[in-house]
Amino acid sequence: MGMGRGAGSTALGLFQILPVFLCIFPSVTSPCKILKCNSEFWAATSGSHHLGTEEAPEFCTALRAYAHCTRRTARTCRGDLAYHSAVHGIDDLMVQHNCSKDGPTSQPRLRTLPPGDSQERSDSPEICHYEKSFHKHSAAPNYTHCGLFGDPHLRTFTDTFQTCKVQGAWPLIDNNYLNVQVTNTPVLPGSTATATSKLTIIFKSFQECVDQKVYQAEMDELPAAFADGSKNGGDKHGANSLKITEKVSGQHIEIQAKYIGTTIVVRQVGRYLTFAVRMPEEVVNAVEDRDSQGLYLCLRGCPLNQQIDFQTIRSAQATEGRARRKGPSLPAPPEAFTYETATAKCREKLPVEDLYFQSCVFDLLTTGDVNFMLAAYYAFEDVKMLHSNKDKLHLYERTRDLAPGNMAPSETNPALWVALLCLSQCWLCLL
Predict the structure, then answer these.
(1) Given 3.30.70.20, 3.40.50.920, 3.40.1000.10, 3.10.129.10, which CATH number is that of 143-302?
(2) 413: Cα separation from own chain's centroid
(3) Residue 181 pLDDT exceeds 60
(4) Is the backbone of residue 19 left (phi > 0), alpha (psi -120 to 50) or beta?
(5) Which residue positions does the secretion signal occupy (predicted)?
(6) Which pLDDT belongs to residue 191?
(7) Residue 118 has pLDDT above 50, yes or no
(8) Which of 52, 212, 332, 415 has its CA 20 to 30 A from that of 385?
(9) Residue with the larger pLDDT of the pair 334 and 356
(10) Which residues are CB-contacts of 59 (< 8 A; sequence separation ≥ 6)?
């Protein structure tokens, strides 16, 4: 049977698009049945025999059946990226091939794939590559960043900066694709200062791409492999879409998860760990029930009762330092920093006095450990590498008087100053 350019090229395009759905989204953990819809339509339009132009009505029938299948699972697929991508793809194909939305929707007949055909298609480099699928068929995805370092300080996916206690084990990321859990322990006996001593990352299994993999790091142990000794996603065809690279032995590793467009950086600085991630918004928000993710720190931030107002403490420490206070309020650190010496030390690596600089000063005053300066420095270096918006690299103090966002005091709206000046002049006229 001859192959027409219209429907045939459409089927070829679907071979490139639909496997992405199959490899990115799990088929067991979600009630969404979009994988079943995808596979039925894929099977009906693939194989050694393709739909020719004389079979356009049959192609439209298969396409309507695909649309009907997606409507049946719509309620359970809310927020599912594969579902919404399939719906948009169906609409586009309907228009391209002049298919009527009204007509027969009989189940598409399954076509038997010849031996080796499925294997060959699964080995396509685009199947488990999130960025390539997006760049080819729609606008580029939006990326977000989250980082945890130092005492610990948290930068969320929404660029909120917090200092937290969060002693013990806490979920940092928990979505449909991976789980990240950190364990924070006291830096000094009797101190509220904690730092990350253990990190566990679980990459969930995805059809056609990767097996479930677990990465675990602890103080003085930063392995360059997953817990099972492997360095990639396992035995599946897209295994290399997940891999670990050791940048500096025992100090710096990078994990690339191309099938979800995610990069993770883990470092050991001194005795403690730092974490940074770059992740597409669609992956960040892919949770079964967003309202139940209250303890997903990268998404929601630390609970209020776990947050530390380090800026207020820093100001008090600066005042006490200038007054040459006689004794520290916290247990004596190994090396005593005054506010002036801590500021000078942090300025060596962090010349801009943003929140990374301020957290560095706070950590040196709290712990006396100069490695916390390096932790802040590397955290900012990771932001420069991973954050997609270069205008948001630096974060500054927020006060109630500032507009929403990360506006520094020096960046106050000039119009506001003009208005205040006019008001002050009017007030003087009345006196």
Answers:
(1) 3.40.1000.10
(2) 32
(3) yes
(4) alpha
(5) 1-31
(6) 74
(7) no
(8) 212
(9) 356
(10) 7, 10, 45, 51, 97, 99
User: How far apart are alpha carbons 272 and 199 in whole angstroms?
Assistant: 10
Radius of gyration of the chain (CA): 27
CB distance 194 to 185 below 8 Å = yes
Give the Cα separation of 232 and 225 in Å (integer).
8
The per-residue pLDDT for range 343-363, each reduced to its tens digit, is 999 999 999 999 999 999 999
Q: Say if residues 364 and 376 touch (Cβ distance below 8 Å).
A: no
The answer to whether 145 touches 383, Cβ cutoff 8 Å, is yes
pTM: 0.61
User: 207: how many CB neighbours lie within 10 A of its CB?
Assistant: 19
The token pair at 146 is: 């989250």
CA-based torsion, 401, 405, 406, 407: positive or negative: negative
Among 6, 282, 36, 311, CA closest to 138: 282
Strand order of the β-sheet with 143-149 is 242-248, 252-257, 262-269, 272-280, 143-149, 153-155, 161-164, 307-308
Confidence label for 55 from pLDDT (cuts 50, 70 and 90): low
Give me the long-range contacts of 81-86 (CB less than 8 A, separation at least 24): 81/24, 81/25, 81/282, 81/283, 81/286, 82/21, 82/24, 82/25, 82/32, 82/34, 82/35, 82/38, 83/32, 83/34, 85/17, 85/21, 86/21, 86/34, 86/37, 86/38
Q: How many residues does the chain have?
A: 431
In this predicted model, what pLDDT tens digit does every residue of 9-21 receive, in sequence order? 444 444 344 444 4
C-alpha 168/C-alpha 157 separation (Å) is 22
Q: Could you tell me if 60 and 11 are in contact, meaning their C-beta atoms sit under 8 angstroms apart?
A: no
Supply the angle between the helices 130-137 and 5-24 in degrees, to the nearest 10: 140
Query: Of all residues in the chain, what percent carry a pLDDT higher than 70?
Result: 65
Domain-wise residue ranges, the chain: 5-124, 143-302, 310-387, 396-431
Is the pLDDT reported for residue 301 higher than 60? yes
Tokens of 160: 């909120």
